[in-house]
Amino acid sequence: MIGLSVFGDLLHGFGTVLDPMNLLWAILGVTLGMLVGILPGIGPALTIALLLPITFNFSDPIGAFIMFAGIYYGAMYGGSTTSILINTPGESASVATAIEGHKMAQKGRARAALATAAIGSFVAGTISTVLLTFVAKPIGSLASHFQATDYFAITLLAMVAVTAIVGHSLVRGLLSLVVGLFIGLIGLDSLSGAPRYTFGTLRLLDGIDVVIVIVGLFAIGETLHVASKLRSTPERPAVLEKGRRLRTGYLTKSDWGRSWKPWLRGTALGFPFGAIPSGGAEVPTFLSYSIERRQARKKGRDEFGDGAIEGVAGPEAANNASFSGVLVPLLTLGLPTSATAAVMLAAFQIFNVQPGPQLFEDQSTLVWTLIASLYIGNLILLIMNLPLIQIWVQVLKVPRPLLYAGILVFACLGVYSLSGSGYEVLMALVIGVVGFFMRKLDFPIAPVILGVILGPTMEEQFRRSLVISNGDASVFVTRPLSAVIIVLTVLALFVPYLPRIVARIRGTQPTRDRLTFGEDD
Amino acid sequence: MKILVGYVPTPEGEAALTAAAAEAELRGASILLLNTSRGDAYIDARYANADELAAAEAKLREHGVEVTIQQAVSEGDVAGALLKAAAAEDVGLIVLGLRRRSPVGKLILGSTAQRVLLESPVPVLAVKVPSPHD
Fold first, then answer.
1. In this structure, is residue A512 part of a structural domain?
2. Hey, which of A173, A331, A378, A474 would disulfide with A125, CB 3.0 to 4.6 Å?
3. Do B47 and A400 touch (CB under 8 A)?
4. Interface mutation vs chain B, best among A236, A390, A404, most B CBs within 10 Å
5. Across the interface, do A400 and B44 touch by the CB < 8 Å criterion?
6. Which positions are tagged coiled coil (chain B) (predicted)?
7. What pLDDT score does B125 carry?
């Protein structure tokens, strides 16, 4: 009867999300998401970080989460627009789209590329939300059997796996992670009450608020980083060919025929990759791209590199599907698998909502409203995206100095509104400057935020395990589930070197030295 | 002698181009066409693409005028770029297109034309788009 109860819960969720106020949050979220998705350098993590302080004033967390989710997947829709029209990916998840998408636009097929991206995103978003609907609760109840040692192992896996895969160097990634863990340690020890790393000041006894770290790193640091790369030659967006009447008319019959399989394959890749700690959408989009290229070659159609519609349809479906995938571990285990998910987890903590196996029992309305809002949001995006494309592109005309200055002011205001003291603002600015230099010197940011958010959880579970086992450290390897996860953690460290290892075994020269993926934002 | 024209692919720019062509014909001068953008936004319709520059060049050649084309991003200072180009070459006249600006718009973004008019060492010919009622 599980299926039936899911439908009941979901219907209840739809009931809540269709409340005018919540619907408004959904529309606001996806619109904001679209806009930041279109703007290169400004991503969903930055936007949610910027809005995080404001949500303290929300009486009801549901609206905030509907909006945050909307920003996340709205950005996936928006990212494709810039990729296709001006060949500058708006989001790291849309880098693969730019390869074929911009070629299509140059050949006068911009509308078709945008349409296959938007419809593919909708199809993938909807299918993966259906998957989320049915998978989340069973995984949640599975996770309720988890013990402290398993939780310790799984937080460790999340941190290490994301660290291994983002950025260009494992050592730098691990250093970033350690910085994050250190910031997470500051304050009173939750078990013994001893002050740690407070340097004798009372201010630091409560630790550094995670919101301040997030605003500092993602809003201030990122903005300084993109602003430092201000100079660029302006682009002219590719001209949209004259539209036919109906939105389905954007795609010809053969376009539909060539698109639907990549959509489904992209969904099949995106969802599971979102769910495992791989840093979000970038891995599945590139996988989807290369799979579509191989498929096309097999059929003897070698349009890739010259504007193949499959190369847009697949990756765009994959990046949207990955979002629902990201929500699976986030909601059921409280485990973020990308930077944006980590920021969303911080939002849950602000509202004292603890994601995890109990979430579906304790916060049933919240979870199901959030899931229902994904269905609605995807529909809104499909309706808004293409007809209004000319309006969306206008945001690219905003002079960037004004934009970045505005973001910085807003970030400082947000932090000030939290505490009403200049001390926190100053702290956020210092963290922002540190974040700027980290980006400048090629240290990834995502591990820091994972360290800050997951570090305290990991420590708590670690010590709880030891208390239960009377100080016997072997519990982490004698319980099979924990042992398996720890082995996976160690293996995750080798993932970036996979091409080299495979080449060594085959006795050939590696085509790529290292698997690296840019920062997910 | 050279005539410097600040060209943008808009009605104002076309008006400046027409006036510059007539002036060059009259004076037997060659034209230095400068297209630039502040370069602070991801897209800028005033930064001409290859087709638009080719069209502008063809239009001038029709008048039998020699053209040199310069295009560069001026890093936030369009007026400065025009003045620098005027100083670097043997320029005897600058031709500009004017457009109507709101006081607030001028306050926030400043006015390129005003700076060129005030700071140019050579005479400036400022052209408006012919209004449809005239």
1. no
2. A378
3. no
4. A236
5. no
6. none
7. 92
